[in-house]
Amino acid sequence: MAEAPAAPALIGVEIDGRTVEVAPGSLVWDACEKAGVFVPVYCAHKKLEPVAVCRMCLVEVEGMPKLQPACATRVSAGMVVRTATDQVRKFRDGNLEFLLLNHPLDCPVCDRGGECDLQDFTQRYGPGRSRASITEKVHFEKAIPLSDKIYLDQERCILCWRCVRYYEEITGEREIVLQERGVHTVVDTFERRPLQSKFQGNLPEICPVGALTHAKYRFRARPWDLRRTSSVCSHCSYGCNIFVDAREDQIARYASNDNPEVDDSWLCDRGRYAFSEHNRGDRVVNPEARVGGVRQAVAYKDAIERACGGLLRIRGEFGPSAIGVVGSSRLTNEEAFALQWMAREVIGTPNLDHRLSRLERITPDDFEVGIAEIEECDAVVVLGPTPEAAAPVLTLRLFKAENKRGRQILRVPVGVAAARLLQDLPPEATVAIVAHESDASAARELRRKLSAPKRLVQILTIVDEVNSRGCQDLGLLPNWLPGYRPALNPGLETLAMLKAAVDGTVRALVLVDPSPDLEGRALFADALASVELAIVVAARPGVSTRGATVVLPGRTLVEKAGTVTNTEGRVQRVRSAVEPKFAFPPDLRVIADLAAGLGGDLGVQPLAGPVFTKIAEAVPAYRGTQGGLRAKWSLLP
Amino acid sequence: MTESGLVLTRHHGAPDQTTLAGYERVGGYGALRRAVQIGPDEVAVQVKASGLRGRGGAAFPTATKWSFLPKETFPRYLCVNADESEPGCFKDRVLMEEYPHQFLEGVLIAAFALRVTHSFIYIRGEYRSQRELLERAVEEVYRAGYAGRDVLGSGWGCELIVHGGAGAYICGEETALLESLEGRRGQPRLKPPFPAVKGLYGQPTVVNNVETLSNLPFIVEQGGAAYAATGTEASPGTRLFCVSGHVEHPGTFEVPMGRTTFRDLVELAGGVWKGRKFKAMQPGGGSMQILGPEHLDTPLDFKAVADAGSSLGAGALVVMDESTCVVNVAMRLVDFYRHESCGKCVPCREGTYFESELMHRLEAGVATRSELADLSDVCANMDGRCFCPLGDTATWFVMSAYRRFPEEFEMHCGAGVCPVRYRQEVMV
Fold first, then answer.
1. Tell me, what's the ipTM?
2. Fewer Cβ atoms within 10 Å of its own Cβ: the N or the C terminal residue of chain B?
């Protein structure tokens, strides 16, 4: 890593009579924020370069004849700024009047109503009355589908350029441009070509008004209808922070929740728009059991008793190895930890897994460099297209490193010859290798070849699913115990377990939230048909619930509370954003109840907090990660 | 100083000034040779001694502008602003049409003094024939070895690139010009950084006007002092003025600064036409404030005109006779700014629209008195609040005309027609 520069001395700036200390080179806008003085602005955005076009933030700066834009003026020592003088107020009124001249009065049908900066600032500062005698406004096109995801309303646009700059500065794709000029200026795509970016969903979020809206959120809700929960996107292992906005039991949208260390406030469309999956109605809502060959709804307690009775019988007759336990990488850390504990300590079987493919040899060394730390590396080597396909927002981080930080980004095939890279890499450099987990050995090999006395090479491995990393760290694996301690007596991995089930050596399966990939396999159906006992905890009906002996209703990740670990090892909280349509216990409790029925005592309440305490005891790297920090693997015992 | 006292048009009447041969016959490119002999620093010294100030409108001292370039940053660029678009302004056109080689020699002298290896001439899109003429002249210059590699054995070389605009007034603003030249939408850039530090392609850049550079051959040939002597101490040199409007012989005239008055200019153009009386004038082009008959004897001196409440701007003078409705003139000018606003900032984009809608209502005699007050207020919300001077100056003529002819503006309120036109066309 580059050494952190010594913090420069702060300078004092006076804002409306209050003196604040800010770093040299800060913007007046930042100083105002620090002084607790609100300055309205449309065009400026924390993640974009200033352009000073909306003029909303003009303030008085002593010694300057004209009002200055707070968003683009740099502070100087002893600068005196006034934001609430008559001159400033009068101009704000006038500027809002300008903005409203040709703005349609369609707030009642605008998706942005209630969370619109134009509405808010007009309420707060604008003139109370229109004096425009102009009878006809300048009209523009409305409700233009720019893609299947985004609608553009040119009439509502106040031309802050955020969308144009987003495409220039954040994605580099330049899909939206300014066209025409003067009062006829509009934003649009060139020749109305459809947007193709994988990151379109960020546009309505940075739009300060209702000009760019989500197709999936059109006319769906008002902000005051929504209940907002901060959580983590569950559609890849990157761990973007989100707000889940729910209206009653439906999720209305995901919104970004800026975490500069991870997502930098940008989401990919795959993650953002996947929320509608959670609104699907096909759910397991009742415990069920096969009673005398017929599947029927049973009481929760009854289902647990039947499951435990069956497991005890099979363990008694055939030994613990006749039982297999399979979770999935969508489990929370607490569930994963409890499940491996139940398998190993309570049932006593070594056959447990959460993956479909064998995890050969992966250690914390494969996750040394963090997502944000990529920007600090002199060069980033990306092996093949899979890392960015698996975690799309990574692309934006790479672009930022290249575009804003001037880092060298080398996108190369997986089997690239180290010699070819060495031509481009200076002898003294910090280098990050970003690779998909399936290419972990290639990444390690490349690190070995590129490393030099003054060239530090570190790897960031991108794993596949939301909590793949946590399930590995916490040992929901046949060959690794929690914290990557090798299992002395490795058991069967998932596919081997299924084959053994067909062969008859495994006679019972416990499946918690089985993955859709698993469900799609013929071997899985065969295994379910072969075993004597299949206990399934699942949110949605499928092959597993149809073939199960005992079914317990499970929750989806947006209904759970707990933690998940992203691909760089950051432990982040997920919170329950919506309640399921049933009142049965959450999955963690179900695991604890099954364990209790088998005579196991977790020792703590089956809640996320207490179970996390147990995790921290078992895996020292997880200590002190609360608040979204990365696990500290240097604490390995 | 020449016998005629002229600088830019001193070769007037000499044949074939549009060709290299014709220009060389009157000593053309001798100044470039001399510049190469005396070296870049001495050229800069002479330019400083000349007191030459920019002729594009802002009248910034040229030598000072040049001195802002960071000393050792290369490459650096020279851009010539030939995007002459100010209403009433056509002097650069004359210089390019009549004396293209004098202009190109000036460009090369500046490029040499600034140690520039690429000079760009950004010419107004509508100047098609002028552009073709200029391109032919550039070809001749290359063939003669005044441009290209190793000019006159000096070891220094310079490429000349002529680039046509696409017809936007805003591209006369230097940073919008650079944006357009780089192939982007013509819109002004946020300053700082200023072009001298970070201009074309992010490199130090000087942007000079056609007329400014056309003075350089004379300055190098005869010395900065000789140039300064043609004007007064405060306003050195001569200047081209475009006189148009209600005069008998509109045209471009070169006059010494400071020693000439507006009345002299009007008389050079044959006086107010049709025997009518003088009512008002706008110096400096469409952006500048209106002046009245009492200013006719004001000398063409930067300070004197500023004291009168206006500016010499880009060297234009539009004369209005007694039949003129100033509300109508103001409306037409505001329409121009509304049309030319680039749309970048709110007060200009929406303000010029609001202003023009109000002016149309006023001109048609349907505006109320409170709308006239609104007009002043709208202008106050634009002036000094816009991103670049375009929006600011879109208010200057209107407001100065209202201050000077308040009764004429007020007479329009609720009159149902333009009272000035009504009086002329119906009552007479």
1. 0.94
2. C
